Amino acid sequence: MSRVLVSGGAGYIGSHAVRALLEAGHTVVVLDDLSAGHAAAVPSGVPLVRAGMHDTAAVARALTEHSIDAVMHFAAWLDVGASVGDPLGYYHNNVTGTLSVLGAMRQAGVQRFIFSSTCATYGEPDRVPMDESLPMAPINAYGQTKLAIEHALPHIERAYGIRWTALRYFNAAGAHPDGTIGEDHEPEIHLIPRAIQAATGGLPLKVFGEDYPTPDGTCLRDYIHVSDLADAHVRALAALNDGAASAVYNVGTGTPQSVRQVIDTVSRVVGQPVQWTPAARRPGDPAALFASSQKIQQALGWRPRFPDLETIVAHAWAWHRGHPRGYDDRPPRTA
User: Fold this and answer.
1) Rounded to whole angstroms, how far apart are CA atoms 172 and 258?
2) What is the three-state SS of 63-117?
3) Domain ranges of the chain
4) For helices 259-270 and 309-322, angle between their N-to-C axes, nearest 10 degrees
């Protein structure tokens, strides 16, 4: 078993990875500055180091003091639209911050790294479903910052021996099946929680674009359950522990769902109509993104346990129904 530092482990995907690591028997330490994460999402008994990833000395100290032997890195900005408006901020946070973590790993002698990447590295794909052989052509700064790290990792491995796995995932969605952890962003930017809010008295949902070349005119996306993403990270760590070579994998269901299909599913699950209004397309939004995940299925034996949209939405709704005001952000534990 490994001792794993999860950077961004108080955030949405990171907190689910923490839970999956613990269930697999690993020892976990969370590093998070709580600028977007929630201390309440960190399980009792798991040390929470409140520090930013740009603080290389603090990260290196956490790695050494907790005898860490692997890092899962989730700390990043993730709003595609915001990255178009603030590319300098995104490069500073996602590229410089990740290089800081890798520099701390070099200092501490930690040589296994699981990187949270994205399908946005592909840009506008020339075919779907998308496999790892497609050319990389990001159309927004968010995707470009993730690709910059993917390009850096082989050089870092050759120089310092840090082996790595990059997981390019599609649209993370849902919540833990037991309803104890889920998605709580401020402001909320993801479609399913925003649709739930619109069905339960919140502001109407904006549908960005109804004129895409898709069956119903709205964007097609691949919604992957957040617990299935967490499982992929745990499997990637196990493979590196067993000596597997560094690799890149897509993680998705392979099933495209339109914005209108999501609206219909949320309305059905919640039992109330989703109020929505049309809006112009957002810059940097491709028409269709959905995965071929054959590579990770064959290499790591990964399969989605919750591939259907109905279950994903039901788990998200259970979380929001049980946490109408989100997490109770009590004072953070520190270690």
Assistant:
1) 15
2) HHHCCCCEEEECCCCCCHHHHHHCHHHHHHHHHHHHHHHHHHHHHHCCCEEEEEE
3) 3-322
4) 50
- Position 266 scores a pLDDT of 98
- Both tokens of 259, joined, read 């914005």
Q: Which residue in the block uniquely carries the two structure tokens 């990792």?
A: 153
Q: Note if the bond before 324 is cis, omega within 30 degrees.
A: no
> Quick check: 152 and 96 in contact, CB under 8 A?
no
Closest to 295 (Cα-Cα) out of 331, 254, 257: 254
Strands 220-221 and 257-258, bridge-based pairing: antiparallel
User: What pLDDT is stored for residue 304 in this prediction?
Assistant: 97
Cα(316)–Cα(167) distance, integer angstroms: 23
- Write out the catalytic residue numbers: 142
pLDDT of residue 332: 43
Distance, C-alpha 270 to centroid of its chain: 25
Name the stretches of the chain with pLDDT < 50.
Answer: 330-335
As a CATH number, domain 3-322 is 3.40.50.720
**H runs (alpha helix) in the chain:** 12-23, 56-65, 80-85, 87-90, 97-108, 141-160, 191-199, 226-241, 259-270, 294-300, 309-322
User: In whole angstroms, what is the distance from residue 61 CA to residue 282 CA?
Assistant: 41
